[in-house]
C-alpha cells in the first residue's frame, strides 16, 4: 500500500455538507485508473475541517467505492484523545492503513510528538504512515525523530515533503533518512512539483494530491520512474510546469486542484470549506487555460 | 471590556475532561483581584483542543463565576461554519464579547480572512476582538488588513502580538496601526514579556496569559503604566525576567503557566490536553525555584 502512486482525492463540500456522489465518483475514477493506493482525508481531503461523523462517513464511502484498491485514511487531529477515536473509526470503516500528521495549535516538541505516535500505535491494528507536512502542521521533524518513530511496530511508511534540488541531492537526503529507519519502512514523496525528482532519487512512492484528480497522467510519471527511466519521468513532470507554477502562485495545491475539479464539472462550486475559497476571476480563467493546454487525465 | 488588564486563565483538563472546580476557582480569583476583564477560552485556555459542548460549558462556567467582571470568549475554529456555531454558543452563555483568531490548517490569504470576520460580524450582537497571534495561527496580518477588518461594526479591539524594541519603537508601531483603524477600536498587547513596554507605548490594554494565574502582580504593572509611571511598570516587569526567560525556553507561556498552576496546587496534573505536556524533571524544579523567588500573586 505504501509504494507506487497513492492518490489523495478532494473531499468536495459546501457549508451544507459533503458532496457524497461527487466524492464517490472521484474514488471510482482512481480505482479505474489503477492507482496503487487511495489516501482519503489527506490534506487535500480537508480532513482537518470535518467533524468526527463526517470523517467516519467519508472513510466508509472511500472503502466502499475503492474495490480492491487499498485505502489509507487520515486520522490527524490536535488532540491525542481525538486521534485515538478517529483511528478506531477508520479501522471500523475498513481502512487498510492510516496516515497521521502531528497537527498543532501550540507548537509541539519532539517528546510530545513521539508520545503521540507511541500512544496511537499501541491502539492500532493496521499500518501507519507518518505524515510529515510542515507547511500545514508547522512541526519540523528531524531525521533523528523520524528514526525513533519509525521503530514503532505499526509504522510502515514516511510521507516526506518535497525536497528541492537535483536527483543526486535528493538521493543523498533520502539515503540519510533511510539509514535511520528500518528497512521495511518505505519513504514516499509528496509536494507534487518535486515528485518526479523524488521518485528518481529512490523514494518508494508518491503521495500525490494532483494524482487524486488526474491519476493517469501521474501514473505515467510514476511508472516511468519505477522502470528506471528517469529522463522520461522528469520530462513528463516538466511538461506540467504551468500547473506547478500555479500551485506556487496560490499558496499550495489545494485551491488549484479544487478549482480544476469545479471547472471540469467533477464537483460543484463551492467545493472547499469556508473560509477557504477556490480561485476567482482572472486566476480562475488562467487555470482553465492551463488545463486546456495540458490535457490532464 | 477591551482596556486595562484582561486575564486569560487556563482551562485545566485531563484526558477524562475539564477540571471544572479548578477552573471556577481560577475565575473567582480573577474577579476577587478585580481584573478589568476575563478572557475565557483563549490560547491559554486551550480552546482549540475542546469540543463544542466543552467550550459551551466552559463559557457558561466563566460567566457564572465572574460576577460583574466582563467575560470575552474565544470562538476560533478552522471552519467558518464552526465559528458561527461557537459565536452563538458564547452569546447564549452570556459572554460580553468574543475573541476570534484566524486559525489555519491550510494557509489563509487576506481575502479569506476578511471574509471570515465579515461573515461572523454579521451574525454577532456582542463586540468582537480581533486576535492576531501568528505563533499559533500562522497567519500574518498586515496593518492594511487590520484597517479593513476594524471597519466592521462589531470590531472593538485588536489583540496584537508582542512588539520587540524600546518604548519609542513600539509607540511608532502602535501609532502606525492606529492611523488605520477607527478611534473607538482599542489596541491590546499580548506576549507577556513585552507587555509593560507595550502599555508604556500607548496600548489601551494587556491581554495577558500570566495574568490569568497571577492577576495582582500583573495588575500592579498595568496600573503603573496607566498612571503614566513608565519607569515603575518597566521595573516591575523586569523583576519577572526569570519567568519571561522560562517562557522563551519552553516554546511559549502555556506549558510554564500550566506547570506553575500544578506546582501551586491550583490544578491537578495532568492539566494540559495530550500531546501537550507540562514541564518535567529538572525543568519543573527550575520553575519551582523561580516561583519561590518571585512571590507572584
TrEMBL record, chains A, B:
UniProt xrefs under SMART domains: DHDPS
Listed GO MF terms: 4-hydroxy-tetrahydrodipicolinate synthase activity
Record-level GO cellular component terms: cytosol
InterPro entries on file: Aldolase_TIM, DapA-like
Binding-site residues for pyruvate, renumbered to this chain: 44
Sorted UniProt keywords: Lyase
Active site feature: 131 (proton donor/acceptor), 159 (schiff-base intermediate with substrate)
Pfam families according to UniProt: DHDPS
Similarity remark: Belongs to the DapA family.
Name used for this protein in its record: 4-hydroxy-tetrahydrodipicolinate synthase
Amino acid at each position: 500500500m505504501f509504494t507506487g502512486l497513492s492518490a489523495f482525492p478532494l473531499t468536495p463540500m459546501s457549508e451544507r455538507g459533503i458532496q457524497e456522489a461527487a466524492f464517490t465518483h472521484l474514488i471510482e475514477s482512481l480505482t479505474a485508473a489503477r492507482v496503487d493506493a487511495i489516501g482519503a482525508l489527506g490534506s487535500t481531503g480537508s480532513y482537518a475541517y470535518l467533524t468526527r461523523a463526517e470523517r467516519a462517513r467519508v472513510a466508509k464511502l472511500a472503502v466502499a467505492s475503492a474495490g480492491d484498491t487499498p485505502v489509507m485514511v487520515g486520522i490527524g487531529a490536535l488532540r491525542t484523545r481525538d486521534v485515538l477515536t478517529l483511528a478506531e473509526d477508520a479501522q471500523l470503516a475498513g481502512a487498510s492503513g492510516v496516515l497521521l500528521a502531528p497537527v498543532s495549535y501550540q507548537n509541539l516538541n519532539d517528546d510530545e510528538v513521539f508520545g503521540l505516535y507511541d500512544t496511537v500505535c499501541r491502539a492500532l491494528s493496521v499500518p501507519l504512515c507518518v505524515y510529515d507536512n510542515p507547511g500545514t502542521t508547522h512541526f519540523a521533524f528531524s531525521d533523528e525523530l523520524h528514526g525513533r518513530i519509525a521503530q514503532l511496530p505499526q509504522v510502515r511508511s514516511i510521507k516526506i515533503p518535497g525536497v528541492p534540488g537535483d536527483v543526486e541531492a535528493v538521493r543523498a537526503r533520502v539515503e540519510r533518512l533511510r539509514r535511520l529507519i528500518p528497512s521495511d519502512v518505505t519513504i514516499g514523496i509528496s509536494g507534487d512539483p518535486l515528485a518526479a525528482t523524488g521518485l528518481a532519487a529512490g523514494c518508494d512512492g508518491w503521495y500525490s494530491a494532483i494524482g487524486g484528480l488526474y491519476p493517469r497522467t501521474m501514473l505515467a510519471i510514476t511508472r516511468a520512474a519505477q522502470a528506471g527511466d528517469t529522463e522520461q519521468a522528469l520530462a513528463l513532470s516538466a511538461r506540467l510546469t504551468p500547473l506547478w507554477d500555479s500551485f506556487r502562485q496560490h499558496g499550495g495545491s489545494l485551491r488549484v486542484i479544487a478549482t480544476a475539479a469545479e471547472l471540469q464539472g467533477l464537483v460543484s462550486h463551492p467545493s472547499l470549506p469556508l473560509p477557504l475559497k477556490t480561485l476567482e476571476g482572472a486566476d480562475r480563467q488562467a487555470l482553465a487555460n492551463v488545463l486546456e493546454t495540458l490535457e490532464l487525465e
